[in-house]
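Subject: sequence -> structure tokens, single chain

Hey, anyone have a minute? Need the predicted structure for the following. Not urgent.
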Amino acid sequence: MAGRKINPIIKQVLELGPTLVFFLIYMRIKDETYTLGGTDYSGFIVAALILVPLLLAAIFALWLLTGTISRMQIFVAVMVVVFGGLTAWFNDERFFKMKTTIVYGTFALILGAGLLRGKSLLQWVMSEALPMKPEGWMILTRRLMWMFAGLAVANEIIWRTQSTELWVKLETFAMPAALFLFLMFQFMALQRFMIEDPEDKS
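Reply:
Had a minute. Here:
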């Protein structure tokens, strides 16, 4: 069932807002230590814990406004809750940083599993929004699988070798920007596979 249309600005705020708030809170309290229940938590862990309810509230608001919720949103929400909980339980920020690797890695594995069966799962998810020939979907799926795999590997290298502050900046801005630019380039490169709307020809 198709979802209801909402203002694109509101949609972007709800989708990107929680991550930006996490970044701003982290930058504000990154050098602080907070004692909760007799345990000391770093500013990073506190910011990560604040992100969890913010993200859930944003997804719930999107569901109320559109009447639908994507599988990807559900998966990301589950990952944030699980790894946010592990981060708090073990008081170890590494769990939250691993989340990004697992999210991107899982997307790569899902797309790869579809390709092994000769199918494009992207086409199944996005065909209504982006009409394209099957050959184009297979090319895009294959390339996006490698992109997700590359982001997963990059995240592992960054959080294991660089500072937390640099990881937060790259996680918030660089990785989403890289994925966005990659997709824009692919859509332009695959124009020959696009299916024109008959109404556009008239």
